[in-house]
Amino acid sequence: MTNSPLPKTDCLTAAMLTVGQRRTERLRFTRGQVDTYCALTGDANAIHRDLEAARRRFPGVTNIVVPGGLIQSTISGIFGTRFPGDGALGLTFIPERFRKPVLPDEEVVVTFEITRIKGAIIELELTVTDVQGTRLTSATAKVLAPDPAYRDWWEQQTQR
After folding, report:
1. Domains of the chain, with CATH numbers?
2. Which band of pLDDT confidence, cut at 50, 70 and 90, is reported for residue 4?
3. Contact indicator for 80, 88 with CB cutoff of 8 Å
4. Whole-model pTM?
5. What stretch of H or E contains 81?
6. Comparison of pLDDT for 77 and 1, the residue scoring more
7. Are 113 and 19 in contact (CB under 8 A)?
8. pLDDT tens readout for residues 16-74
9. How far is residue 105's CA from residue 66's CA, in Å, rounded to a whole number?
10. What is the spatial distance between Cα 126 and Cα 94, in angstroms, rounded to a whole number?
11. Which of 47, 67, 68, 45 is nearest to 56 (CA)?
């Protein structure tokens, strides 16, 4: 078994960010990721593993449903790797209800917009859409950005 490489990270301090700054990420979840997430979290909801159950809950779906928690966890991973990046700490994440389910292998677009910066605390509005631009959900989040000392350490590590 080989270890997969870690994703490329960034490390942005609050001073490097601005209100109104945006970042967009495209996400896609596989059936294997859904199975792994459910096994790790103990989420035994049948809509995440059985098509018939998913269809009874969401008529017309063509696949099982990706857990909202998997999507939220992946977004949290973006906070800690790319925006603001390594060293960032998630403080709050308040999502709305999904307006329609996300299915494995469907691409979703997550837009992060900084709405406020207070010291090292970054407030963001997030919007999740399908690739046609239909809004699926939104959320607000607060993230503690890394400080300059951490950024200095991170730069030294990435230059190795």
Report:
1. 14-29+66-158 (3.10.129.10)
2. low
3. yes
4. 0.90
5. helix 68-81
6. 77
7. no
8. 999 999 999 999 999 999 999 999 999 999 999 999 999 999 999 999 999 999 999 99
9. 10
10. 10
11. 47
